[in-house]
């Protein structure tokens, strides 16, 4: 097997790079800086870079089928008009929890946006998993999480993956693609006995789960039974999320965080906060669904 080649795609540094999403029709990578709130777009073909500032901490987003983005901000879901940068708040799923923040999110293959909320202090299991439907109705699907992350769906749409980073656990659910229902939550794998916690994730075309091990400096590929298949060492300690992109969906783009780096680490890892591209993996990803609303 050819050794993967890692290069810097976008130097940054970004305080908390997150949410990379490949837009195939634009041949562009979108991603966020959660703490210097903005959504960025970078085109590898010509290096063009664009930024849309957000009024609040931004946890995640998805591209809308009708244009623009749907974003999970600190206090709720919002529509983002890319033409003029206007941000329109739509709905707050947790008005009774003012200290909570929306975090990781992405769309299933029927265009529903799933997103987890987290405790602002990263300590209490006050977070929940929400499903935002195309009609903008919001549904609480599960609860009791500290820091929700790692959303992804198996290629056959029968399994949904969802992590609680602070609980050191990645769960699997039975998933009903027609009804958008989840059931039978169980442990997929745990990170308690390894360095790093599961942050953002994706799946490849073979059904393997790829996740960033934040604080552990690695990307892991996990088979459908929860066994580690491959581990890739990153040049930074805090990778945050990964997604497949490129014309053939064979490049793994990885965001990372500069805000988590100590002074000692910063000297040793000056690339912290960059967006990386990993080549020569020998696998391909799947197109990222768009929000149907």
What report would you give on this structure?
Strand 6 and strand 7 (69-73) form a beta hairpin. The radius of gyration is 17 Å and the shape is globular. It starts with a strand and ends in a 14-residue tail after the last strand. The protein is mainly beta and 293 residues long. Helix content is 2%, strand content 52%. The strands form 6 sheets. It has a 4-stranded antiparallel sheet, with no helix packed on it. The chain has a 4-stranded antiparallel sheet with strand order 2-3-4-5, with no helix packed on it. The longest helix is centred in the C-terminal third of the chain and has 6 residues, at 263-268.
The mean pLDDT is 96
How many β-strands, per DSSP? 24
Silhouette: globular
- Give the terminus-to-terminus CA distance: 42 Å
Helix content: under 10%
The stretches of 5 or more residues where confidence is low (pLDDT under 50) are none
Order of helices and strands: EEEEEEEEEEEEEEEEEEEEEEEHE
Rg to the nearest angstrom? 17 Å
Strand count, sense and closure of the main sheet?
A: 4 strands, antiparallel
What's the number of helices?
1
Strand content: over 45%
Q: What strand order characterises the main sheet? A: 1-24-23-22
Structural class: mainly beta
Descriptive key words:
mainly beta, 1 helix, 24 strands, 293 residues, four-stranded antiparallel beta sheet
